[in-house]
Specification:
By secondary structure, this protein is mainly beta. It has one helix and 15 strands. β5 and β6 form a beta hairpin. The protein starts with 14 loop residues before the first strand and ends with a strand.
Length: 203
């Protein structure tokens, strides 16, 4: 495979569905389904770590020092208005490709107090993910360089790990594993040269 473990095994230990829209967009979350927070510093911003909810891809304070890579979770920027109420929650680090509409992201009062250096915050803050909050993963691999599994016949535009320019690998048969390391897969809907489907990055 493209990424080797310390024991030089070529078995994949993780995968990313490159054509599934399960990655949080780096944008403002559209639905703060519970937003009764009061007492935050006025007109301020802070990085806040999610502490609950059904979305499994959020970073925690314990994982923030993990080297940036496909397993580092999503982080969020909370913005307040002049009265100290929350006006928006913006995705900063997009996290892994595991999001599904209707999942929730909760922020505890303790997490908000820690982020803003405050005490005495009241209320509750929960975001509910909408379909429009999700996109395909970028297809760019800065750390681990995956091999690819291709479920559906077609072509893939990609950049090999040691190259700077992309190539198009043509006429790939269904259910094929491409045993080379890639630094980028052109997997977005706008990447029309990629016609293969069910592409999974194997890590």
């Amino acid at each position: 495979m493209g990424y080797y473990q310390n024991n030089l095994s070529d078995f994949a230990t993780g995968g990313i569905e490159l054509q599934e829209s399960k990655t949080l967009k780096a944008a403002i979350l559209s639905n703060l389904s519970t937003n009764t927070i009061a007492g935050l510093p006025a007109s301020s911003t802070a990085i806040v770590y999610a502490t609950g909810g059904t979305y499994p891809g959020a970073a925690s304070i314990e994982t923030v020092t993990t080297p940036r890579g496909v397993t580092l979770g999503a982080t969020f920027l909370v913005t307040t208005d002049g009265a100290g109420a929350v006006t928006s929650v913006t995705v900063v680090n997009q996290g892994p490709n595991v999001g599904v509409a209707a999942q929730t992201i909760e922020f505890s009062l303790a997490s908000l107090n820690l982020a803003f250096g405050s005490t005495g915050i009241t209320g509750a803050l929960t975001a509910t993910i909408a379909g429009g909050d999700l996109d395909r993963p970028s297809g760019i691999f800065n750390e681990k360089k995956p091999a690819l599994y291709v479920g559906g016949t077609g072509d893939i535009k990609l950049t090999l790990a040691s190259d700077s320019q992309p190539i198009v690998v043509k006429s790939i048969a269904a259910s094929t594993i491409l045993p080379f390391a890639v630094s980028r897969v052109y997997n977005l809907t706008s990447d029309t040269e990629t016609t293969a489907t069910e592409i999974i990055a194997l890590l």
